[in-house]
Design goal:
Layout: E1 7-13, H1 17-25, H2 27-33, E2 39-45, E3 52-59, E4 62-74, E5 78-86, E6 105-114, E7 117-126, H3 131-164
Antiparallel strand pairs: 1-7, 2-3, 3-4, 4-5, 5-6, 6-7
Amino acid sequence: MSDLPEYVLDRIFDAPREMVWRAWTDPELVKRWYGPGIETIIHGFDLRAGGAWLNEMKWGGNSDFSKMVFQEVADDSKLVWHHSSTDAQWNVIANPMMPDWPQVLLTTVLFEDRQDKTFVRLSQIPIGASDAEIACFTSTMSGMDNGWGKGYTIIDEMLTEMRSQGGQGD
């Protein structure tokens, strides 16, 4: 397949870009919204090109591990990472819940000023994926808004808190 599917989610947050950036890049804030409805544990968050975000999402007696390796970090404007499922030792593996899920997603998040608000564009594209992985990604794209949307609702709440605390929010 030459035309890769691309998941895109656009959102305008009612907060300045620096504040929205912080919600995406401060691990204490990220763990509050990433993986809404379950416990998110951030085992590492090295925010630089080549650095890794090591993430565990826990529910019941289960854990889902993922590693995001930052490809590009442009302060307040752009994050790019390779997103993969891993085992507990952070080795990239097939997603245990969806074996045909792409092993690597190229994730790009752009942040732009819109007067006193912030426009965020999230996109994900499977890279190095088999036809079965591309088909799996394509078939689930319509449901991805639900998970990201719940996380974005939490970001909205956090931004309200941060504004009321003078931009702090911890």
